[in-house]
Amino acid sequence: MMSTTRAKSSSGRVRTVRRKLATEEYTDERVAEFLLSNTTDAEDYARAVKLVRKMGLDPQRIDHDKPVGVR
Predict the structure, then answer these.
(1) Quick check: is 13 in a domain?
(2) Does the residue 32 lie in any domain?
(3) How far apart are CA 26 and CA 22, in angstroms?
(4) Residue 38: how many CB atoms within 10 A of its CB?
(5) Is residue 15 part of a domain?
């Protein structure tokens, strides 16, 4: 991914600076952790569990935080 920035130098010239940004690729397990940990209630958590199972993963084996009130 590239980032472009335009800046005016002290001499008044406009400069374009391009730089490559670091990107991160997530494993399926990490995506599952995000899905499960970012739920807000029991209904939302149940949907995330279904999605994780569709990914072929066992939600109980993914380290995550459950929303308040979900066991």
Answers:
(1) no
(2) yes
(3) 13
(4) 13
(5) no
28-67 tens-digit pLDDT: 999 999 999 999 999 999 999 999 999 999 999 999 999 9
Domain of residue 49: give its range: 25-71
Single pTM value for the model: 0.68
Residue 61, token pair as written in the block: 């084996």
69 domain residue, yes or no: yes
pLDDT at 36: 97
CB–CB of 36/45 below 8 Å?
yes
Predicted confidence at residue 30, as pLDDT, reads: 97
pLDDT at residue 71, rounded to an integer: 80
Q: Is 14 exposed, middle or buried (0-12, 13-18, 19+ CB in 10 A)?
A: exposed
Overall number of domains in the chain:
1
Q: Which residues pair with 8 in a beta bridge?
A: 14
